[in-house]
Amino acid sequence: MAGTVHVSPRISAIPVHVVWGAAAGLVGGIGFGVWMSVSRPMTDTAMITVVAGLLGSANAFVGWLIHLAIALFAGIDFGALLGQSAQRLAPAAALGLAYGAVWWAVGAMWIMPANRGLPVFEWNDATRSSLGGHLVFGLLTGLTFASIARMAAKRTGSARG
């Protein structure tokens, strides 16, 4: 005998939001990756090669692969956690900026310096530049997510994506 399982619309939307978040995270990651490829706040080395150091490399291509994998994960997380609230541009932009700031605190202020044997939560030229890049990531991720939601709503004829 089969039973019926009822799932709330909020929960049933999570798989769709995860896919939208993955795409949005990649768009945000590309924007942030360009920022890191040209940013040299402390040395003559692009920040993207510092990311490559997470795997013991100094190759910019490796840095891009690592960075985009993290951006994909962060985008999926954005969709799962905030997708229900990020379907209109203004809330998505605000949530994206806040989300980027959280990733900056966790990634640039804690994980990256700890991985390199440097002091954590230190404000300097590198972390200041990284904050700008993380805010670009968050803003692009949020706005892309809301844009995808808007296109999906138009396609299905629903009021919300």
Provide a count of the helices: 6
Largest sheet: none
* Low-pLDDT residue spans: none
Backbone structural class: mainly alpha
Number of strands: 0
Give the CA-based shape. elongated
Protein model, in words:
This protein is mostly helical and 161 residues long. The chain is 73% helix and 0% strand. The protein contains six helices and no strands. Helix 2 (14-38) packs antiparallel against helix 4 (60-82), helix 2 runs antiparallel to helix 6 (125-156) and helix 5 packs antiparallel against helix 6. The chain is elongated, with a radius of gyration of 18 Å. The two termini are 35 Å apart. The mean pLDDT is 88.
Descriptive labels:
161 residues, mainly alpha, 0% strand
Could you provide a short overview of the structure?
The chain has helices at residues 9-12, 14-38, 47-52, 60-82, 89-115, 125-156. It is an all-alpha fold and 161 residues long.
Protein topology:
Blueprint (H helix, E strand, L loop, with lengths): L8 H4 L1 H25 L8 H6 L7 H23 L6 H27 L9 H32 L5
